[in-house]
Amino acid sequence: MKIAIPVDNKSKDTDVCVSFGRAPFFLIYDSESEEGQFLPNDAAKMTGGAGVKAAQIVVDSGAKILLTPRCGKNAADVISAADISIYKTIHKTAMENITAFLADELDTLDEIHAGFHGA
Amino acid sequence: MNIAILSGKGGTGKTLLAVNLAAVANGASYIDCDVEEPNGHLFFKPDSLEVDTVTVKIPQVNDDLCDGCLKCVEFCRFNALAYSNKLMIFDDICHSCGGCVLLCPQKALTEKDKAIGEIRTGKSKDVDVVTGIMNSGVASGVPIIDELQKHIREKSKDGKHVFIDCPPGSSCVVMDSIKNADYCILVAEPSIFGVHNLEMVHELVELFEKDYGVVLNKVQTGENPSEDYCLANDINILGSIPFDPELGLLNSNGKIAARENTEYNKFFSALLDAVLKEARVETTINP
Q: Where are the domains of chain A?
């Protein structure tokens, strides 16, 4: 099973990025092979619609799980349409959260914000 | 003559000036292009209102025809489209360029109308009042201002004067508002902040090679950095509106000073003469 997570950089001990749509990279972690792959997030520097485009990248990656501290409505709509489940991160680094998810310690993300458009 | 009134920020006196100039200009038109917050109608209180809805085209998908090729998703530079088991369209992000519809190899996309605002036309004594209003939540007022341009061209046909009340600032909506302007009046406050905002619109009208002059508002005795800026940059000052509690009171009560007060009627008539004289000279030299 593939797990997607927005991250700050391409190192193994990277932190989770505070933003979903504008994270510089997504870590796509395969829980079977225990291997990770970093995808650049082309949406990060877009003037608008970053959440939608970032969600498209996650959908196209084949991930079935998304771990993120927050997620906007447009992005969540795209993610949910692909039957990807969204869980809320509680730890600082990406690997800590993946370990927590696999140990069934993360809750689903219920607060979907309206987006920061024009804010 | 189409005269646009603009300033780098809100509250400098664009509407005060535009409304009063239109009121003394004998059968002029007042066009409110500040579609996010039009307020000229509060002064004119126009009657016999006609309301027209402004729409833009946005795509809709026929899911039976869409084969998920992603051509539209990859094309859209605004990211208004996503494909997640089926094509999803985000109306609020769409800029109505129509590219996705042209591009779709399956002809699965067609266009539909989306209402984004309205244009209200009415009459206040001898002034034709046209107001553009954007619906809340809409990203850009430009299509409404484009629609207002038709009214500007129509109203100025028989040589009548059209006063264009612009949105504040110097962004796309302002650029669109001054498109058909023969002359621009920049309204400026006597403060350092006022100079900063004056500089922004000064740069804009220079960029668009418009003829322009400045009206100083809220003028008191003492320093006036905006006046200094005009003198230093050789900008023509068309007139100065004094900082006057009576004018402020009339204005804050939604009254048109030129219609209520003889002195202000004379004042704005003289200011209009100065504007027209200058505008005619400028447009003759630089047609």
A: 2-102
